[in-house]
Specification:
By secondary structure, the chain is mainly alpha-helical. The protein contains 5 helices and no strands. The longest helix is centred in the C-terminal third of the chain and has 33 residues.
Length: 165
């Protein structure tokens, strides 16, 4: 990423970063899905694959519409989150069960929060640039990501109680 000189640069850089973040998150979610033991968690993780791919499609579309080269910029922030998820849920993971499910939810939510912040920021940039259709698409993605996070909050109550036993 070169030094941004305009808000338009910030906007496209944010979307390229999010594209990389989504790709990284999707890869680790695919690895975590078979490790989940709670059926609702497993289903949510499987559903996330489609949502992440859908949101990545929106990013690619908006980057191209901005006249930018359709490419991603490696997201070091999510790289660190993926390393943490790998460490806690794969390399040094507890045996399969509620405790592992609790860790999977925690790691998933950390990555999701990055997405909420990033898509929300991109939407704000789009709005400031007068790109109302782009802003609407990004706000919808933010809303969907936030919905997944809220679902994980609710699911964690059951999973955490089971992990305590």
């Amino acid at each position: 990423m070169s030094t941004p000189e305009t808000l338009e640069d910030l906007y496209t850089d944010e979307m390229k970063d999010l594209w990389s973040a989504n790709d990284q998150m999707n890869r680790i979610v695919k690895k975590l899905t078979p490790k989940a033991s709670d059926p609702k968690l497993k289903e949510m993780l499987q559903t996330s694959h489609d949502g992440i791919e859908k949101h990545t499609g929106v990013l690619k579309e908006l980057i191209a519409a901005a006249g930018e080269k359709t490419s991603k910029e490696h997201c070091k922030g999510v790289e660190g989150l993926v390393e943490e998820a790998t460490k806690h849920c794969i390399e040094e993971a507890p045996k399969k069960g509620a405790l592992l499910d609790a860790l999977i939810i925690a790691q998933y939510q950390r990555m999701t929060h990055y997405g909420i912040a990033g898509f929300g920021t991109a939407a704000a940039y789009a709005e400031a640039l007068g790109k109302t259709e782009d802003a609407a698409k990004l706000k919808q993605a933010t809303k969907e990501i936030y919905g997944g996070d809220e679902y994980m909050n609710q699911l964690s109550a059951t999973v955490n109680a089971a992990a305590e036993k």
